[in-house]
Amino acid sequence: MSVRSFFDTNVLIYTDDHDAPEKQARALELLERARLDGSGAVSTQVLQEYFVVATRKLGVPAGVTRRKAELRSRASAQRDCH
Hints:
By secondary structure, the chain is mainly alpha-helical. Helix content is 68%, strand content 5%. A two-stranded parallel sheet has the order 1-2.
């Protein structure tokens, strides 16, 4: 039985936060590990919150943020189908 990790909005935000390099590195590490072993999950609400904060507070271009949210949503949905 594998353990699933539910990712909070903050983890996604830290992946784009260049002002917090240690937290950014840790968040990227966690997401990469979850991607490799298929253990991560995010909700639609978390993805929406991520989009708003990343674009408004961190200044990440909307197109880039949207694509990241789409990829994370797709990865989470694929795991739910197995």
